[in-house]
Design brief:
Helix content: over 70%
Structural class: mainly alpha
CATH topology of the largest domain: Serine Threonine Protein Phosphatase 5, Tetratricopeptide repeat
Number of strands: 0
Number of helices: 12
CATH architecture of the largest domain: Alpha Horseshoe
Largest sheet: none
Distance between the termini: 40 Å
CATH class of the largest domain: Mainly Alpha
CATH superfamily of the largest domain: Tetratricopeptide repeat domain
Shape: elongated
Length: 251
């Protein structure tokens, strides 16, 4: 999980706990249902507790925040399909939620493959969410009073970064490498903290575009700065590909 995703998960959990204290649930049973979410010890338990709350208290004032928590929990599990389902439920309840828009855009774009029969439909859907998030970002209003101004600013920046990642992924599927490169650069520039996974993806596109020196440079940066052994390994493997392709070009 990236720094931004970890931060988002922690922020959501803290904000949820704060909301439980700041807002008054309608009954003790709703309090108990909320506490079951807060006290869940694993992802599946948390999702089950969220569904129990939403089933028993369909009009709960906590609907959006628990659906956001469900979206983040599903993403932490690595379940893309479930993440998309929860993200769509967030937007049904809160249509102007730019963080969820950009999450959905990125997931859909990254799941789309070159030979999918519905490739263009999915890419257009992803781009639609991404463009809307980018259009709304400059004037986005804080949708959770428990977030500090700094936390909200970082959330907006992360949403913008993810939207650019979605645009980059869509362009890459269409083999528009020049567009993908520029969008990945924007994603890195706008993120609260540059994501090494995004840097690796930029390196992959550089390699695909035969810009091997650029690929090596960005991958070297990942290797030098990341403290995640798996990410370092992936970057090193992609760097080998870049170096090999560069050597072959010189023959």
């Amino acid at each position: 999980m990236t720094f931004q995703r970890i931060t988002a998960a922690i922020t959501t959990a803290v904000a949820f706990a704060g909301l439980c204290m700041a807002q008054k649930p309608k009954s003790q049973k709703e309090v108990d249902a909320l506490m079951a979410i807060q006290n869940a010890t694993d992802a599946d338990g948390r999702l089950a507790a969220i569904e129990a709350l939403l089933t028993k208290f369909a009009d709960t004032e906590f609907k959006v925040v628990v659906l956001e928590m469900a979206t983040e929990t599903a993403r932490m599990k690595g379940d893309a399909e479930q993440t998309i389902i929860y993200a769509e439920r967030v937007l049904a309840a809160d249509p102007n939620n730019i963080a969820t828009m950009s999450t959905l855009a990125k997931l859909i774009a990254e799941k789309t493959r070159e030979f999918d029969l519905d490739k263009e439909d999915k890419l257009k859907q992803a781009e639609g969410y991404a463009k809307k998030a980018l259009d709304m970002a400059p004037t986005a209003k804080k949708n959770n009073t428990m977030l500090t101004d700094e936390q909200w600013a970082d959330r907006v920046k992360d949403s913008v970064s993810q939207a650019h990642e979605a645009m980059a992924a869509a362009a890459f599927v269409r083999k528009k490498n020049d567009v993908a490169i520029e969008e990945y650069k924007k994603a890195l520039e706008t993120a609260p903290q540059p994501d090494p996974t995004t840097m690796i993806r930029l390196g992959i596109v550089y390699n695909a575009d035969k810009k091997h020196d650029d690929a090596i440079a960005i991958l070297d940066k990942v290797i030098a700065t990341s403290d995640n052994a798996q990410i370092k390994q992936v970057a090193a493997q992609e760097k080998v590909k870049a170096a090999t392709a560069k050597a072959q070009q010189k023959k």
